[in-house]
Design a protein that fits this description.
The chain is globular, with a radius of gyration of 24 Å. With 442 residues, the chain is of the alpha+beta class. The protein is 43% helix and 16% strand. The protein is built from 17 helices and 14 strands.
Length: 442
């Protein structure tokens, strides 16, 4: 072990005080904060909000103080395709509706895993992982597919946002306390050799309690409704009386299973053209597990560009808090001048950033455009879900170097995969990553 030597400390202090550049930075940072003081205004000024391929400019949604980015961006994707196929504008699908069932299903998913691991000690790593966060807001593309395929969709005005949906802190704290208490009861039942029938009956009762909690917080989901609307040409339409699942199947005109999730992790033992899955990465018992195809970044960009050129946006997951300027709506490696201001460089190569937990997928958004010069991307248009105040009325600019370094997942239609890529996705046996992997996004 090496301690800080008082003599060395005196030299370090003197060196700092003698450096005029760092003293200037010190004055600015102490008064205005770090990022406000070292923002590279030139990088912001040089990022024009114009794109040679631009597919969507609809108003953005606002997830507020909740971790539902994966759901909002996914619903924006589905909404766009519905509008495109039915000649609509500014249609809104209800996140509150899917959030209700996501919370309900996650409780049940937790119960089943608690029963499965009940004979393991509380000190077991898997049990500790389950009990640490019985459920949370964050999710992935496959979570959205599981919910829509099972429960369908409803328009936003039939189940609008509620205060607990906008700010999930209180609900998550209460709900997780309940689930942890339920876990203790289930573990006791298993270890006292209760019958499967008894355990299933107890879980059914617990789910009934959870339904009551979620109904109080989010409202009760509709079983039937009639959707009436006028298209862009002011023509009147009605779906008639339908269920949410019928609405999805009849009205969306898309097969979400045609869309697959790509990942980009170079090095670190991750193989390209190999599929991966993540243990305990699900929200619905019997639902679709995560299934990623690892591809080089240039191939991920190629498929995203082709989908954009065909007029459809691209769902993607990234580490949004890295090198981002929220007021300007800019994701750029040059937006902050760490070297000039602090005398340091930040970051490692992409694979090591994930292995060392410096970076991971933390946020999902929608790519709605790209600017191409000589057929190469320079920047991307991004629809966020933080309301219309940040950036360009809620849209961000992501420059291409930032995308390469901090984008980890995209979702594209399988028709954009090459024959080799499609074969790899369909025929390689997925390698299961552990539940503690950094690739398990929030």
């Amino acid at each position: 072990m090496s301690e800080i030597n008082p003599t060395d400390l005196k030299t370090i202090r003197s060196d700092f005080l003698d450096n005029q550049r760092y003293r200037v930075t010190q004055n600015a940072v102490m008064k205005n904060g770090i990022k406000n003081s070292i923002t590279n205004q030139r990088a912001i000024d040089n990022s024009s909000f114009a794109f040679s391929v631009d597919v969507d400019s609809n108003k953005v949604m606002n997830q507020k103080h909740s971790g539902r980015c994966w759901m909002f961006s996914g619903l924006n994707f589905v909404r766009f395709l519905i509008e495109k196929h039915h000649n609509l504008k500014d249609m809104e699908l209800s996140p509150d509706y899917l959030f209700f069932y996501d919370k309900l299903e996650r409780g049940n998913y937790f119960y089943n895993n608690i029963v499965k691991t009940a004979t393991k000690p509380l000190s077991d790593r898997e049990v500790m992982f389950l009990l640490a966060t019985p459920q949370e807001d964050g999710g992935d593309w496959n979570f959205l597919i599981n919910l829509i395929e099972k429960y369908g969709l409803v328009p936003n005005d039939l189940m609008p946002e509620t205060t607990p949906a906008w700010n999930t802190t209180e609900l998550n704290q209460m709900y997780n306390r309940k689930l942890d208490k339920d876990a203790m009861k289930l573990r006791d039942l298993v270890n006292n050799e209760a019958s499967d029938t008894k355990i299933k009956s107890v879980i059914r009762q617990m789910n009934q309690e959870n339904y009551r909690i979620l109904s109080i917080c989010f409202g009760t989901p509709p079983e039937h409704f009639t959707y009436e609307y006028r298209d862009k040409n002011n023509n009147y339409h009605t779906t008639g009386r339908i269920t949410p699942l019928e609405f999805y199947k009849k009205f969306s005109d898309i097969n979400l299973n045609d869309y697959i999730e790509l990942m980009n992790l170079p090095g670190g033992g991750y193989k390209f053209n190999q599929t991966y899955t993540i243990d305990l990465c699900n929200n619905v018992i019997g639902g679709k597990d995560s299934h990623y195809l690892n591809v080089p970044m240039h191939d991920m960009r190629r498929m995203a560009i082709n989908q954009l050129k065909d007029g459809d946006p691209v769902w993607f997951a990234c580490d949004v808090l890295q090198e981002w300027n929220n007021p300007a709506g800019l994701l750029s490696l040059g937006v902050y001048d760490w070297k000039r201001s602090f005398g340091i460089t930040l970051g490692k190569d992409k694979a090591n950033r994930v292995q060392y937990r410096e970076s991971m997928p933390t946020h999902a958004m929608l790519i709605c455009g790209v600017d191409l010069q000589d057929d190469e991307p320079t920047k991307w248009k991004v629809q966020n879900s933080w309301g219309n105040k940040p950036g360009h009325k809620g849209y961000f600019i992501m420059d291409n170097p930032w995308m390469d370094q901090y984008t980890y997942n995209t979702v594209v239609n399988k028709k954009y995969l090459s024959a080799t890529e499609l074969k790899s996705y369909q025929e390689t046996t997925p390698i299961t990553l552990p539940y503690w992997t950094a690739m398990l996004s929030d």
